[in-house]
Amino acid sequence: MLDITSYQNKKVLVLGLAKSGVNAARLLYKLGALVTVNDKKAFDDNKDAQELLADGIKVITGSHPVALLDENFELMVKNPGIPYSNPMVKRAQELNIPIITEPELAYQVSNSEWIGITGSNGKTTTTTLIGLMLNEDKNRRGTAYDAGNIGIPATAVAQKAGADDTIVAELSSFQLCGIQTLHPHIAVLTNIYEAHLDWHGNRENYVNAKMRLTMNQTADDYFVMNWDLPEMHELAKRSKATIVPFSRQGAAGAQAVLTEDGYLSYAGDKIMKADAMQIPGVHNIENALAAIAVAKLEGVSDEAIVAVLQRFTGVKHRIQYVQTVNGRKFYNDSKATNVEAASVAIQAFHDPIVLLCGGLDRHLPMTDLVPLVKKHVRALVTFGETAAQMNEVAKEAGVPFTQTTDLKTAVPLAYQASQPGDIVLLSPANASWDQFPTFEVRGDVFIDAVQQLAESEA
Fold first, then answer.
1. Tens digit of pLDDT for each residue in 97-106?
2. Which one, out of 139, 242, 245, 359, has a CA that is 20 to 30 A from the CA of 219?
């Protein structure tokens, strides 16, 4: 970590806690800043705030009082999930207080090389694969550390990663809105679809947020992009970095490609058969190609790449195999918080699917799921605020459905609707916040419910 003095005696407001806010507050305090933390959760129920107060950090909880900003703060470190429409954030902008997110703070103190990964889908899998590939090659110096939106605060990683190490950071559009100097040597854009438009306001803002990943790159850097999406060809013109395209569909000019005879290849070098990968689905071929491109740019051997892809079985909550119950394979895809992600999961399987879906109502259309449900799904079990909307998808597809109150009751109902050989898939196509604090909690509830089902059916 760099020994910087720019935060000494600087008044900083950390808005919102969770992992990123807690770690940002602690780092700022360590750097000598005059830190105030403001979190909406009440103090008595706020363990994070209680611990920060015990550490000597000023905390204000229970609400976001706009008048707090009259205390002449010089910087706001904003929780990525808090939108810019929030009154506290709007007031900070009116007062010309700089607003950053936690990865920007991490980058400012880091002396490691950064690899940044963003996209609508595939970020976590691609980030994980890159980290594994870099660490698999024993000829490389240093260690690769996963960080960011993958669930590991970048500020925690930046304090332990050294000059020979690499920080492999998954960066959401929310986080990227708050970067200023963050400069990845290699940037990856897995794809761009319709997502988070309720937060960003429109698709243009969402795309612009994603493209902030490359805004500080130069010709000495690399930008790995999905060349199967025509939009990427235009977006590439906005980057100063060297473009490294990947393609599953044989797009002209791509360097990492799936060959006609089924090999994952880079710059004409066949590395391994795609069907030798452990993780299912064509989307994971794209994730693997993106990871291969980064690994080859970093000098990783083919042997290390193959070892990882033959061993890796997926990340938790992303088409994660849970267990088999009387011939039904249960998969947890709680991270599918939008239609595109759920579509990817549905198409990853060849066997009939019983789909568990529903969640937070963001007033977004679900109609794109209809043809996929008609083709791949035996039955739906719906829950959450969008249950009625998901029922309409089933009706249009001509597929039976059952509506229930919550995920725990949905699991046995899905089992009853399934047959031996079926896939029982939680892929909600909606955010979790109507009934769960995070998609991780939703996925854990599903895993527990499947375990209870297995015990009852044993």
1. 999 999 999 9
2. 139
Domain 320-457: what homologous superfamily? Mur ligase, C-terminal domain (3.90.190.20)
Q: Give the side-chain half-sphere CA count within 13 A for 328.
A: 26
* CATH architecture for the domain at 11-100: 3-Layer(aba) Sandwich (3.40)
Neighbouring C-beta atoms of residue 380, cutoff 10 Å: 28
Known binding residues for ATP are 119-125
**pLDDT tens, position by position, 23-37:** 999 999 999 999 999
Structure token pair of residue 391: 């029922």
Give the residues across from 380 on adjacent strands: 355, 401
- C-alpha 250/C-alpha 263 separation (Å) is 12
Task: Please determine, for residue 375, whether its predicted confidence score (pLDDT) is greater than 90.
Answer: yes
E strands, 104-241, are 113-118, 144-148, 166-170, 186-189, 222-226
What local confidence, expressed as pLDDT, does residue 218 receive? 98
**Count of residues in the chain:** 458
* The pLDDT of residue 121: 86
Helix, strand, or coil (residue 228): coil
- Using CA atoms, how far apart are residues 351 and 38, in angstroms rounded to an integer? 49
Binding-site annotation, residues = 119-125
